[in-house]
Write a structure and sequence with these properties.
alpha/beta; Rossmann fold; 10 helices; about 15% strand
Length: about 290
Amino acid sequence: MTCIQDFTGHDPQWCPGCGNFDLLDCVKQALCELNVEPQRVIFAAGIGQASKLGFSVRANLFNGLHGRALPVALGLKMANHTAPVLAVSGDGCFYAEGGNHFIHAVRRNLNIAILASDNRVYGLTKGQASPTSPPDFASRANPEGVGAQPLNPALLALVCGATFVARTFTGSKAEVVDLVKRAMQHRGTSFLDIMSPCVSFNKVNTFAWYKKRVRPLGPEHDPANREAAIKLALAADEETIPTGVYYQVERPVFEDHLGALRGAPIAERTLGYKPERVRPLFERFM
């Protein structure tokens, strides 16, 4: 059995040609290259097409409610701060139902990797506009277009205080593998904005559309320069979309402030007292 097979779980139920197939391959390849054991990895997923990735990787998974992948990831990290935790979901789950959770997980610098698959549409529920859909995006759910300006995920992550922000495209598999690895190796909130075409419900932002526009960052970019990173995030709304690491700095993570997490993970600790000591307390409420 190869390493890839070790990480292979259920067959995903995606449309043929979906960009998430490429993302799934890249995630498994990155885990293999990092020599991470399947039983050590924990995925936190929400609801949606992108969230199904968690079921297709043979590792630990907690599938939460729509928009609630990040609170779950926070709890998992607190219970076992030594385990790699990856939050996986899409543009609807992370930025609409889960928008408030996204803001606060990022500003806390929680030590997790956020893999956000963005296809600019709600793919699971058949094609209505998502927070990242452009103003003129029309579908059966919104035939006159969206009207509102799209949310810029990389820009939002930067202004909220993420310490690692990168952008990539599932058609560039070598880059995706590299960035997933770097996101997992970074200590702090790692946000990976992954452009992943929906072949069924988004006929505008296709593989061909992205391939004409994506351009990998060159060595002249300084990822420690937040102002430059913000300019790159803003440039992503134009005809050329920069990919690679926009921003990366070191800062104390959320867990560093919690004395209770010093030492062994909470999940591996044994009780330092006998249950009989607390039984009288419970009896008072019975």
